[in-house]
Every structure is written in C-alpha cells, then in structure tokens.
Amino acid sequence: MDFGYEGKVAVITGSSKGIGRETAGQLAALGAKVMLVARGEEELIRAREEISQHGEVDYIQMDVTAQDAADEIIDGTISRFGRIDVLINNAGGSFAKPFDEVDIPDWEQDIDLKLMAAVKVSKAALPYLKERGGAILNMTAVLGKTPPASSLPTTVSRAAGMAMTKAMSKDLGQYGIRVNTVCIGLIKSDQIMKKWQNDAPELSWEEYSRLDKHNIPLGSIGDTHEAANVITFLCSDLASYVSGAAVNIDGGAGHAL
C-alpha cells in the first residue's frame, strides 16, 4: 500500500518523544524526509539517531512559543530539504485546574503553546504548502469537545484548535491543502507514566493501563503507535478526500463524536 510519502517533507513540532516521535519514525520509514522540532536537544539527538536508521531526518532545537520561532523552523526546513508537504502541529502539554485557580499568565502561556504556535507555524509554512498542496494536522484533545470541571485552560485551547482546524480547511482547500485534527484521549506518555509510578507502583503498566477508573471502553490506555497510525494515515495520500475532520483517538472514552 502506497501512502505517498516518498520524497515528501514533513515538519513535526513536539517530536523528540511521545506521539510526535513515533509519527516521525513512521513517516521516515515510509519515505518522507522529516524535520523534528522540540526544546530538548538531547532527546532530539537521540530521536534523530534512532529514526535515521529508517529514513532521512534532521532536527531544529526550538521553543515554538519563542519570538520568530515559526519563521526559523520553516526557513530551516526549506534550507535543509527544499520543500514542505506536511505540517504536524504537535507541541503541547497538559495544564488543568479549576477556573478560580488559573492565573492570567497561565492562560496566556497555554494559548501561546497550543493555539498560537500552531497558527504561526502554519502561516509561515503556507507559501510552501500552496506550491503543490499538502496536509496540516493539528493535535487537540477529546476533552476539548466536552470539557469537564477543573480542566482549564487546556480544554479551551484545544477547543479553539478544533475550531481553527475546521475554518482552515474551508479556506485552504482551494490550494489542495487538507487540514485535520486528532483529538487525543489517554495515550501512554511521560506524564501518564509518572502518574502510574506515583499512584500505583505496585502494578505493572499493563495492570495499571487496564484499571476500571480510566473508563475506557476498549479496556486500556492507548499506545503512541496507535495514535501515530491515525496521524500517518490522515496526512497521507490515502486520505486525499479527508479534510476538516476531528478524529477521536481515545479508545471510545469520549462523550462526543
């Protein structure tokens, strides 16, 4: 099966570990040239070494919220690879508190990281994506669709990312640019691994992952490759008629389509 990645170039923010790292590996193995972007250079170097065994990859050490970061990321990618076909806005984190405990700087920082960084990098990449069409994938979260209590500001930032995705898909389709989002639920990550070690170190990961308290219909916390599989498909030629979609990757745990 041909995913159509051969010779294409993908930029992935937040790609030194987790879902971004796994997706980078899959795209490189399918023939894409991949530019990794993240803050931590040690992890970037490690990721590049591992992925380069399967395909062509390089990295840019960058905080996506820094001034001029978007231009530096895109300019660096063009200088290295000469084109951009896929942009995956994956940089983010989890910051969730009750409304009355969230300070204004927390709001600003969260929105800068999860929403405005994606806006800026997408804008910087747009002239190159317009040349031959391509795909933008914005990472959001399933809780952005049905925010629970004490989930601010992260659910608001993610909900805004979904709205942005739909609006972008309407505006950019004329250029052959598809824009989608994946709405992540509980997926194995550093944060969840730390929670496991803090909450139930006596359990194996498999036992902890399958606890009833997670309320996952498919029975366990997802793995990074399961999320990366969906992202890889959505950004590929196989999904050439999919745009403006918000796809849940949550084992059925979400309460909205």
From TrEMBL:
InterPro entries: NAD(P)-bd_dom_sf (IPR036291), SDR (IPR050259), SDR_fam (IPR002347). GO terms for molecular function: diacetyl reductase ((S)-acetoin forming) (NAD+) activity. Its EC number is 1.1.1.304. It comes from the Bacteria. Keywords: Oxidoreductase. The keyword Cell cycle does not apply. It catalyses: (S)-acetoin + NAD(+) = diacetyl + NADH + H(+). The keyword Ion transport does not apply. GO terms for biological process: bile acid metabolic process. Belongs to the short-chain dehydrogenases/reductases (SDR) family. Catalyzes the irreversible reduction of 2,3-butanediol to (S)-acetoin in the presence of NADH. This is Diacetyl reductase [(S)-acetoin forming]. It comes from Salinicoccus sediminis.
